[in-house]
Amino acid sequence: MHSIAFQIGGLSIHWYGIFIALGFLAALIVLQCKRRYAGMTPDQIFDIGIIAVVGGVIGSRIFYVIEFWHQFSGNPLKIFRIDQGGLVFYGGFLLVLVILWLYSRWKKLSIARIFDIYGPAMALGHAFGRIGCFMQGCCFGRPTQHCGVSFPPGTAPALKYPDFTTAKIAENGQAFIRSLALHPVQLYESLANLLLCIVLLLLFKKVRKVGQVAASYFIGYGLIRFSLEFLRGDHTDSILGMTPAQFIGVVIMIPCGIFFYLYFGKYGEDAYGGAEETAGK
Q1: How far apart are CA 218 and CA 261, in angstroms?
Q2: Among candidates 228, 242, 198, which has minimal Cα distance to 216?
Q3: How is residue 140 annotated by DSSP?
Q4: Does this model's pTM top 0.90?
Q5: In this structure, are residues 244 and 185 in contact, taking their beta carbons and an 8 Å threshold?
Q6: Given this model, what pLDDT does residue 63 score?
Q7: Taking a C-beta distance cutoff of 8 angstroms, is the pair 226, 246 a contact?
Q8: Low pLDDT (below 50) residues in the chain
Q9: Where are the alpha helices (DSSP H) in the chain?
Q10: Distance CA 124, CA 272 (A)
Q11: CA-closest candidate to residue 178, choices 155, 159, 153, 160
Q12: What are phi and psi of 205, to 5 degrees?
């Protein structure tokens, strides 16, 4: 883990921010490649890209602050330090869905087609984002005896899971203790999202109805998040014995995905009914 990539004068540039930016660019490329399917112009793709960044960051930060308020209660100004990590994916995801729905109504676009192309784009962007989480030391995993990663002294993982066998005492008497070996769950999720992106892109050649790719994203990511949350070690709260992310995955993401996959399969428009051919150039 190396949270700071480089410094410009007194300004520290964090790897977290760099990977978030790379994720945005990667997602934008996917959206541009699939824009004809959604009947969208390049300018409209840029619009929804900005929506993803602004809405995603705001929604993710709001949910993170609510879930981990104890980190900010003593210093509310830290709420705005998103460069240091601290985003909850589902918060940004839900806010972006609402804004995209409003945008589609305004531009008279098919929201189902927009969601379809958003699925793989979001999965790819999320893959980059989780690498940023790993570099920042947030969203860390539980202790493990195999294939673990130890985080440096002073980081959140080291404070929660200290490995006292690594303790070193400085001249001023301050102890420096690394973390125990933890599951690199951030990298697990990064790989899972990359695979999900590939599967969703391949589904465009298989599904016949609009909306089914987006529904598959709901199911796929819900399963990924539910499974990997068992390896997360940074949570302190629960809902019915599950982490908030597991609860959302089981109660909202997976059921909604299954419902919409079946619904669009029966009532949805044909996936290639001409919208992609009328897109602006």
Answers
A1: 10
A2: 198
A3: -
A4: no
A5: no
A6: 79
A7: yes
A8: 274-281
A9: 15-33, 35-38, 42-67, 89-107, 111-136, 156-160, 185-203, 212-228, 244-248, 254-267
A10: 24
A11: 153
A12: -85, -10
